[in-house]
Batch of 2 targets.
Target 1
Amino acid sequence: MFCQECGNKLILKFCENEGLVPYCETCGTFRFPPFKTAVSMCVVNRALDKILLAKHTNGETLLLAGYVKKGESAEKTIAREIREETGLNVIKTKYVASRYHEPRNVLMLNFIVSVSDGETRLNPEEITEAAWYSFDEALGAVTSDSTAAYFLNADVTELKKGRF
Ligand SMILES: [Zn+2]
């Protein structure tokens, strides 16, 4: 591990309440390991009975997702991503759950997001296909044991209990 500011090799040093943390002796500063932040979006129609799932370029059926840009709030990322990827407008968002996804070193924040009715205009660079699914169809469409399935289960539970 190297310092992201000066490039020198980091040592591990005890940090109160944190344990051993990478430390740069040149900068005299702890360097907490960086990670990315992304939003995972369970997009629902205005009637709250259908979920929009996307088929990504790798062939997997997933919830819509996108990285949070530096300086953005998660809510701003959601509005931007929904507009860019589907051409729809966000009505309301609700935070549901989070999970760290190790292969991509990213903290995923999952939200239920209701959108205005209208024709979806997909961005072909990000999504090859998207379709509206009933709650049960959506649960059957994502890979079981995946992060998408974990979030979708939590989202559908909230929606079925009317907690949105
Ligand atoms: Zn340094």
Target 2
Amino acid sequence: MEKLLDKIKSPENIKNFDMEQLEILAGEIRDRIINVTSNKGGHVASSLGAVELAIALHYCLNSPKDKIVWDVGHQSYAHKLLTGRADRFDTLREMGGLSGFPNSTESEHDPFICGHSATSISAALGLASARDISGEDHNVVAVIGDASLSSGLAFEGLNNAGHSKTGLVVILNDNEYSISKPVGAMSRYLNTVITNPLYNKVRQEAEKVVKNIPKLGPAAYNAVRKFQEGVKNLLVPGILFEELGFRYFGPVDGHDLKQLIPMLQKIMLLKEPVLIHAVTKKGKGYQFSEENPTKFHGVKSFNISTGKTGTQKIEDWTFTEYFSDKMVKLGRKDKRIVAVTAAMPDGTGLADFAEKFPERFFDVGIMEPHAVTFSAGLARGGLRPVVAIYSTFLQRSYDQMIHDIALQNLPVIFCLDRAGLVGKDGPTHHGVFDVSYTRNLPNFVVMAPKDGEELNHMMDLAVDLNCPSVIRYPREKAGQIVGASSCAPLEVGKAELLRKGKDAAILAIGNMANAALMVGDILSKQGIEITVVNARFIKPLDGEMIELLAREHNKIFTLEESIASGGFGSSVLEFCERENVGDVRIRCLGLPDEFIEHGDRKELLRKYHLSPAEIAMTIEAELK
Ligand SMILES: Cc1ncc(C[n+]2csc(CCOP(=O)(O)OP(=O)(O)O)c2C)c(N)n1
């Protein structure tokens, strides 16, 4: 039988559906999300929790004229299915297929590109203000999760929007979850709003009166509103949103279309800042993701009937797992070690440390700038903070890195996971800028391990340093480079010679040293012998090693999994220019000056000529 979903080519197609059909549609959308993500991976739990919100919004609004801005965008799969992308949904996150996030180049229904948390309110306010200036008339809605709402950026947006008085609807999608359990005062506050039975009872009584307003007249309405305000002030600390200039509606059941739709229809008529507090269940409609929303926040693939995701053997350990293990060891050995995460205890591998040393573990919420300055304070107080963070999310904290860490030369250790191409999450998540934006920070030592063992040694070194440091590593199996010389103990600014040859040299950083060794094997079969050096340090560079390589070779290829402009290779070029290093040609191999699309990590490396076979081809061509 043809499904309702199959008939939907644009949101217009659902406008004539009755309530029963909309509810059936919600079920079909959930089935499609589960089927496709079980295969392709993706953000399952958040998307399942936002199905009715997407249906209600598209039922009540006229997208693309009306603008819907999803925060992070990881919950937007239902929105994609309703906006003419159902036929391509099984290409989700594949190279050339649909993006896992809203993308304005993909659809006119996605007004703003996103992937990082808490941008929606600011972006929506910008769209609303542009609308006002242009004399247009449409609705602008931001949909933001409870954890993202606690970010500084979201507060800045709320603060400005409440003051502006323009027509803007913020839907707070409150599933009482971040990736793991949310933390912080905002979360506690929202919980009070939802669960305070006394407040809810009084509010329900007040609402009964409001329903009779036509009979009672506006004076009674105002009296009731004042009464509600008084009650809220009495029972709900702060009435935060109203004080910020928003009209607050809710809490409403975010899965009940019968409640949501009439509420949205009325609220869209208001031309002022409004916040709708919708309570949803993360993972709704799939037993395993409801029971374990953290595991199903983002998955690679899973078995639909058992809910099982892939398991990891020790030889398959990723850099994250090496980091996780080492943190526990460091924590045992050194009481000064404290760990800081911005809402990513699981993804960064800090969950074990948190369990073993809860008093030395800080999850500060999705607040990367705060995480950095907070760590500066911890370091100033005599501790050795390790900030575990994805490369892409640290971008948000650049001023804190300069002003609060580098300037004061504080020994904070930044462990940057997902540094390099992350694969299917695409351009918002690739960690390709950190080399360029950290290597120019005074006082910093910046390093990248070639394998898991070297990551351990770099962490030991970082703890001993009396300055800030960065260790960057990719979303990749860490492995162990067979035949490589032992890497302990590490000396700051000292590279490691891995292979000797006469025809050219590769100076590689991080896991690219591994690729360089494979390149050495490929080229050797063609009679070309290359030197391979594991640079280890992006800053300070091993000047002696570079001079030696320049003396012994005509060509040096630098190799990095990051954007080449301003990157590791550039720093080698700068060094050679500054130090008048002899007659050597340097070619910088890295990522081009453009945003890299989503797709399988290995496929992307091939496309951008950074797989061993491609690198070997480049070198062979250059040597000819
Ligand atoms: C700046 C930034 N930091 C971290 C993340 C990683 N991240 C993605 S979703 C998420 C949790 C979002 O929780 P919430 O806003 O409540 O939405 P939910 O997934 O619960 O629907 C986090 C921390 C991010 N996308 N952006």
